Amino acid sequence: MSRAGSGDGARPPSGGRSAAEYRIDGLAQASGATVRTIRAYQDRGLLPAPERRGRANVYGDAHLTRLRRIADLLDRGYTLASIKELLDAWDAGRGLGGVLGLVAEVHGPWTDERADRISRAQLVARFEGVTDEQAIAEAVELGVLEPVPGEDEFVVPSPQELAVAVELSEAGVPLSAIAAQLREVRGQVEQIASRFLEFTTEHVFARWLGHRPPSDADAADAASMVRRLRPLAQQTVDAELARAMRLFATRHLEEHLTADGPYTPGSVDVPEVSVALPAATIEAVEKLVGSDHVAAFVTAAAQREVHKRALDALTPSPRE
């Protein structure tokens, strides 16, 4: 890299004390930004003007630090307008330490799961040797797989999610159906996440984030609360999903075990036959399995007896 006095690059520190100096293209090379971007940031007030020395504009370490901070905030999803508010507060002496700590906390991992890597050959083997390029393309689009540039491998952000797909495939579910189900579930989960964030912002974080940007102390308190609340959304969804699965799975099973329509006390409906049962039998079954499961129990018991007799008829007696 050339020195500012003799080229377009940076002048290294002298004796370990002087700050590095850059011409604009040297600053661009050091920061990863383009010259055009640097000039646009200057025009928008995001980047201080350089020092004028004769006919040359000279930038320093502060400019490089500012460019890297802008790039980091952009990567985290902040707009240039919001970044300018943060930087203006920083320039006014309010500091950014707490805010950046809050940003890091929010953008940190929200799960203990660690990403893994898998080769294409390993991926095909996990799906019983079936190569489905369309399914792989859909997995990439959904973010289940992330191609590794220059290699025939993928990063797997959620090994658990891939394992679910493998299990469903082994159970006979087509890969296209798995992808469609994931799209639907993802949309519903994103709505839950959005609602949870609205709820916590209204009832928890409003007192800290009511002014922009928050002070270092308020941002640090908010970051601590994020750490406390982070697992609550997943725990709530896990508990409610377990409750709902039990409820609907039970109903679904009852519907399929009951041949015709709903159960009415004192009788069990089967195809073309309505069988009346003694009240004492109904009461005994209710005590055993509960009133909600009488029809399913009687139906299953009858089917079991029919199957048993069919097997007995097919099994030769010891005398034969």
- Sum up the overall morphology in one term: elongated
Global Rg: 33 Å
SSE topology string = EEHHEEHHHEHHEEHHHEEHH
Tell me the structural class: alpha+beta
Low-confidence stretches: 1-9, 12-17, 262-273
Number of domains: 3
Describe what you observe in this structure.
The chain is of the alpha+beta class and 320 residues long. The protein is built from twelve helices and nine strands. The relative contact order is 0.05. The chain has three domains: 84 residues, Multidrug-efflux Transporter Regulator, Chain: A, Domain 2; 140 residues, no CATH class; 48 residues.
In short:
The chain contains twelve helices and nine strands. The chain has 320 residues and is α+β, with helices and mostly antiparallel strands.
Structure keywords:
3 domains; disordered N terminus; Multidrug-efflux Transporter Regulator, Chain: A, Domain 2; three-stranded antiparallel β-sheet; alpha+beta; 60% helix; four-stranded antiparallel β-sheet
SSE arrangement:
Blueprint: E1 10-11, E2 21-22, H1 24-31, H2 35-43, E3 51-53, E4 56-60, H3 61-75, H4 80-91, H5 97-107, E5 116-119, H6 120-126, H7 133-142, E6 146-147, E7 153-156, H8 159-170, H9 175-209, H10 216-257, E8 267-270, E9 273-276, H11 279-289, H12 294-314
Antiparallel strand pairs: 1-2, 2-4, 3-4, 5-7, 6-7, 8-9
Helix pairs in contact: 5-10, 7-9, 9-10, 10-12
